Amino acid sequence: MKRQDQHQHGDNKFESVAAANRKKGLLAALKGVPRVVGSLDHAIAPMAPRRTVIPSMDFLSCYAIAVNEVNASGGRIVTSPTNGASGVIPAVLKYIIEFVSDAPVRSVETFLLTAAAVGMLFKRGSTISAAEGGCQAEVGVACSMAAAGFAACMGASPETVLQAAEIGIEHNLGLTCDPIDGLVQVPCIERNSLGAVKAVTAAQLSMAITGVYSVTLDEAIEAMRLTAADMSVKYKETSLSGLATTVKIPLSLPAC
Ligand code: SF4
C-alpha cells in the first residue's frame, strides 16, 4: 500500500470524482434516482487514516460511481471505451495512483497504453457497442481493459496481462443491456462499480494462478462475438427487456 498519507480524494486531476463528491440530491435526468457518491464518501472518509486493503476497495467503487453520476447528470462526459462504461477505467486508474503506485506518471502511461491495446482487440475481434453486443460489450470490455492495465502496472508479464483481460471479460459474457427508461443510470452506474472491483480481482487472480489458464483472451473475445450475434435485440440498448421492463423507479423509491 502506497500513498496512504497522500490521498488526493477530491483533487482536480479526476474532475468527475471531485465534482460528484460535492453533490447530493437526485440525478436530474431520471425520475427520482438519488446520487450516492456523496453518501459513500461520507461513510468511508473516516476510515482513511486506518484503511487497509478492503476499505480501499470502497474508494474504488466510489470513484466509478462518481464518474458515472457526473456523466449521467450532464457533467463531464467520459468515454472509456463508451459512455455507459465511463467509470470502470478511471476508477481503476485512480485506485492505482492513490493506493498502489510509487511512480504515478509511469503508471498512468502503462495503464492507458495497455488498456487501449486490449480495447483494440475487442474492437477488431468483436464489438465495444452495446447496440451490437449488450452490456458485455460496454462494462464487460471496460472491465477487461482495466484488468489488463492493473496487471501491467503491477509488473505482470505480457501473458499474465492478457490473462487478466481474459478473466475480466469471461465473467461478463452474456451481460445484457437493459437501462431503465433508456437512461444510462440504472443499472449502469452501480454496474460500473462492480466492473471496477471485478477488474482488480481479475488482475489479482491472473497474477496468483500464473501458468494454469484454460481460456485465452482470443477465445473469450470470439465467445463474446458469438454471444452478441445470438443475443436478442431486446437486450441491446432498447430497454425492452430485463430491469427495464420490471422496475418502476418512481414507485420503488420513497418520496423525496
Ligand atoms: S446497461 Fe446498457 S446503457 Fe447501461 S452501462 Fe450497460 S450497456 Fe451501457
Report on this model:
With 256 residues, this protein is an all-alpha fold. It has one domain. Helices cover 57% and strands 0% of the residues. The protein is built from 12 helices and no strands. It has helices at 15-21, 37-44, 53-72, 88-100, 104-125, 130-133, 139-153, 158-170, 188-208, 217-230, 243-246, 249-252. The longest helix is centred in the middle third of the chain and has 22 residues, at 104-125. The protein is globular. It binds iron/sulfur cluster.
How would you sum up the major sheet?
none
What's the alpha carbon Rg, rounded to whole Å?
A: 18 Å
**Bound compounds:** iron/sulfur cluster
First and last CA, distance: 40 Å
Could you say which overall geometry the principal axes of the C-alpha atoms support? Answer: globular
Q: Helix/strand-derived class? A: mainly alpha
The amount of beta strand, in percent, is under 5%
What letter string, H or E per element, gives the SSE order? HHHHHHHHHHHH
Please count the helical segments.
12
Low-confidence stretches: 3-10, 251-256
The total beta strand count reads: 0
In total, how many domains does the architecture comprise?
1
User: What is the arithmetic mean of pLDDT?
Assistant: 87
Q: Helicity range of the residues?
A: 55-70%
List keywords for this structure.
256 residues; mainly alpha; 12 helices; globular; disordered N terminus; binds iron/sulfur cluster; iron-sulfur; metal ion binding; L-serine ammonia-lyase activity; Ser_deHydtase-like_asu
Write the topology of this structure.
Layout: H1 15-21, H2 37-44, H3 53-72, H4 88-100, H5 104-125, H6 130-133, H7 139-153, H8 158-170, H9 188-208, H10 217-230, H11 243-246, H12 249-252
Helix pairs in contact: 1-3, 2-3, 3-4, 3-9, 4-5, 4-7, 4-9, 5-7, 7-8, 7-9, 8-9, 8-10
The structure holds iron/sulfur cluster.
